[in-house]
Structures are given as structure tokens and as C-alpha cells.
Amino acid sequence: MRIERKELVNANHVTIILSDPAAEKQFPLFVNLVRAGFPSPAEDYSEERISLTQYLNGNPTATFYVRVEGDSMEDFGLFEGDLLVIDRSLEVRSGDIILANIDNEFTVKKLEISGDGVRLVAGNKKYKSIQITTNLEMLVWGVVRGLARRFRK
């Protein structure tokens, strides 16, 4: 897949990448589901075309990508090297995994809003949650909409 990209920010190990959806090629998508369990007998199938950028991007003008570094989100299924799709147009809700900037440092964490306040939760017991207080400046850059992961290079 060829995606034109432009690196915008490289601060604190977060690289933000924009893509050009118009430059992306569409690939075949087999409409039958592929079983992850015991294989079934071969069936007739039909084929559509899919653009991964269109599939993952809800709002192309508000979408960008970041690459995960570190192990703080592994229990939530986000691993080092994963490419996260961040959508700035989504309304932020408790339970969302977000890209946040806290005191000029980027982090990806799960947002929890409760009667006790706001906190950012790591997906690894080695790391403490971050309680958002008036002493911290936090900006939500967007919500994680999806991810792309390579198994082989």
C-alpha cells in the first residue's frame, strides 16, 4: 500500500503522520468472513474493493496517525510499533483511548471520567494512572479510532 505521508511532530517519541487518501490504492476485500477456528469447506465468494484509509478514517480532514512506542498499553491491545488512527472530530467520552498532551508531553491512555474526577489509565499494571488535577495542563488531541499492525517486515 502506498500512502503519502508527512511527518508533522516528533516530540517525546510520538510521531504524527498525515496521509493523502486520494493517493491510496484500493485492494480486494473478500466478503466472506475468514474463520479463526476450524476451517470450513470452501465456499463461493465474491469480491469488493476496499481502501484501508477510507475504512479507518472517519473524517479524513481530522484524522492523523501516531506510532506507539513502549509497553504501557499492551493490556488494551496496543503494542510497540502499532500505527494508531487518531480522529480529532470524535466527541471524547469516558472509556475512549485518547492521544493526550500533558504538560507538553504526548501519551496514549484510556480516559476515565467519574465523580472522583478525570484520570488517564495505562493498559499495563507496571504503570500508574495519571490523575488530572489543576496542576496539570491536559489537551486531548483526538480519539483512537483504529490501528494498523504489521506481523512481518
TrEMBL record:
InterPro entries: LexA-like, LexA/Signal_pep-like_sf, LexA_repressor, Peptidase_S24_LexA, Peptidase_S24_S26A/B/C. It holds the Pfam family Peptidase_S24. It is an enzyme of class 2 (transferase). Its EC number is 2.7.7.7. GO terms for biological process: DNA repair; regulation of DNA-templated transcription; SOS response. Residues 29-144 form the Peptidase S24/S26A/S26B/S26C domain. SUPFAM superfamilies: LexA/Signal peptidase. One of its GO terms (molecular function) is DNA-directed DNA polymerase activity. The keyword Hydrolase applies. Keywords: Autocatalytic cleavage, DNA damage, DNA repair, Hydrolase, Nucleotidyltransferase, SOS response, Transferase. Belongs to the peptidase S24 family. This is Translesion error-prone DNA polymerase V autoproteolytic subunit. It comes from Adhaeribacter rhizoryzae.
